[in-house]
Design a protein that fits this description.
Layout: E1 9-10, H1 12-23, E2 48-50, H2 74-86, E3 91-92, E4 104-105, E5 108-109, E6 128-129, E7 135-136, H3 146-158
Parallel strand pairs: 1-2, 2-3
Antiparallel strand pairs: 4-5, 6-7
Helix pairs in contact: 1-2, 2-3
Length: 170
Amino acid sequence: MSGFIYNILNDLKACSKIGDVIRKNDGQQLRYVRNWGEGWGYLPEGYSVVFVDNHDNQRGHGSGGLSILTFRVSRMYKIATAFFLAWPYGITRVMSSYYWDQDFQNGRDVNDWVGPPHDSDFNTLPVTINPDLTCGNGWMCEHRWRQIYNMARFRNVVKGTPVQGWWENE
């Protein structure tokens, strides 16, 4: 691992794998993640940035395809993000994105190029904060979703402690 001594890398495989697990693709089950991280062939602890989605793969670019979870499947997205924030592997990054109208033609979103919310002069609209702490003006602000910010707090409290008392219902 000497080649990685000065690098921390985005782990793009983790995006699609956690999507497969949460979607139950190919018989995957959440209980299979008990050795998530190096046990799944990922980089050693401390060298990996893990995330559920990013600005490329949520639009179908790059790897992962239909395995990638985004704000459009919010329940599964929250579960996957909660797992990444709870599990002591890697540096977890939480996406904060914006809404765009999808238009699928021949299996591809032809609106995948659409940029952030803007006015008629293409000035980016400001993020507005709603009374329930979610965002408006077309901004999704996943980092403000209650389940996600509570898990970020949890991660900060338990940082550096191992998983204990793993239990699964076979």
